[in-house]
Design brief:
- The protein contains 10 helices and 8 strands.
- Strands 7-5-6-4-1-2-3-8 form an 8-stranded mixed sheet.
- The mean pLDDT is about 90.
- The chain is of the alpha/beta class.
- The protein folds into 2 domains: about 200 residues, Spore Coat Polysaccharide Biosynthesis Protein SpsA, Chain A; about 40 residues.
- The radius of gyration is 20 Å and the shape is elongated.
Length: about 290
């Protein structure tokens, strides 16, 4: 069984080196062949990977991008490259900073053994971020469930079957949101508990602005549901308050309208042509093991 671990990275090579060591240690007793593909999103720092003593990893490649395209698009590009160029049975996308814990790879493999045809998602049961992030993340989940009907509790850290990878690289939403696209194309997923780990080095790079964009990108995948639920809410709400309309009473309605327009705007980021042509943004591929 061939498993490719896909790691998008931008200027965090120290963390990636430690991650590779931890992956190597945690897969030592697993009866699978593991290879690593690192998506270098046009980093400005010098590429430095310590590949010594990684005896349990079959190969390590670095795909260097010409232009910086962002986390979700890096994963989409990596999936397309793997599907077209690599031999694989499953793909595990994971962050390169330690927040996706390597010790949970064995959980994916255990699920594969009794559910080989299902994509597996790491369902977040515990997070390590600060209180403010946790509050924002909880609000995001409530907002997503309310306006899309989807209870999405997973991120990039998943184990994708070959058939799911094929679906994702042919879905325009993958160019904007990984988890949104996965929820859209695969309704029959297996779940495994996942704890969000702590970064190896330095503070989180997820700013409040990026968190909002990330949330809207997921919600925008289901823009039709958002639009229909928003219209329904506005119709019922305005009917209930029409005799006592005031500026304060209009705030919920205005908030829903603002959300709907934001979602429709973010949805324009989805682009199947860009996804299909994404491999043209590859500058070179370095094989370091």
């Amino acid at each position: 069984m061939n498993i490719v671990i896909l790691i998008p990275i931008y200027n965090d090579w120290r963390s990636v080196s430690k991650l590779l060591d931890d992956i190597n240690s945690n897969i030592s007793n697993l009866d699978c062949k593991f290879s690593i593909i690192i998506l270098n999103d046009s980093s400005t720092e010098e590429t430095t990977i310590n590949n010594s003593n990684l005896i349990n990893i079959q190969s390590i490649k670095i795909i260097n991008m010409k232009e910086n395209i962002g986390h979700a698009r890096c994963i989409a590009t990596g999936l397309k490259h793997i599907f077209e160029k690599e031999e694989f049975d499953y793909v595990i996308p994971m962050d390169g900073d330690g927040e996706d814990r390597p010790e949970e790879i064995k959980n994916f493999v255990e699920h594969i053994n009794y559910s080989p045809n299902k994509t597996i998602v790491g369902e977040r049961i515990k997070r390590s971020e600060g209180l403010f992030f946790k509050i924002c993340y909880s609000f995001h989940k409530i907002l997503t469930l309310t306006f899309t009907g989807k209870n999405i509790k997973f991120g990039n850290y998943t184990c994708l079957t070959k058939s799911t990878v094929e679906k994702m690289i042919n879905d325009k939403a993958s160019w904007s949101s990984f988890s949104g696209s996965l929820e859209k194309v695969d309704n029959d997923k297996s779940l495994t508990p996942s704890i969000r780990g702590e970064r190896y080095f330095g503070p989180s790079k997820m700013s409040f602005k990026n968190l909002v964009l990330h949330s809207l990108s997921i919600i925008s995948v289901f823009k039709i549901s958002v639009l229909s639920r928003s219209i329904l809410f506005l119709a019922i709400y305005m009917f209930l308050i029409y005799k006592k309309i005031s500026i304060i009473m209009l705030i919920p309605a205005l908030a829903v309208i603002a959300l709907t327009f934001s979602v429709l705007l973010i949805a324009k980021r989805e682009n199947l042509n860009n996804l299909k042509n994404s491999l043209s943004n590859i500058l070179k591929i370095d094989k370091i093991k």
